[in-house]
Description:
The protein has 80 residues and is mainly α. It is 57% helix and 0% strand.
Amino acid sequence: MSPYPHTIPPVALTVLLFSIATPAQAYLDPGTGSMVLQLILGGVAGAMVVLKLYWTRLKGFFGFSSESVSSDEVDEPHGK
C-alpha cells in the first residue's frame, strides 16, 4: 500500500504528457539528411580506426594469438 494513494505512477505520467503534445510544425530540409548521413559515416570510420588500432589486443582477448615479431627484428634496418 502506497503512503500516497492518489499519486500518478511515473509511466502513466509520461504517457499522459506525450499524448497531449501539440504538433511542432517543424521543417527538415535536405541538409539535415546530409548531416545525419555524415554523422553515421563518421561514426563507422571512427569505429574502424579504433578497431585497427586495437586489433591485436582484441585478438589476444578472444584467444586468437598469432606469431609475434620480436622487437629486434622490427628495429633493424632492411639494408644490412
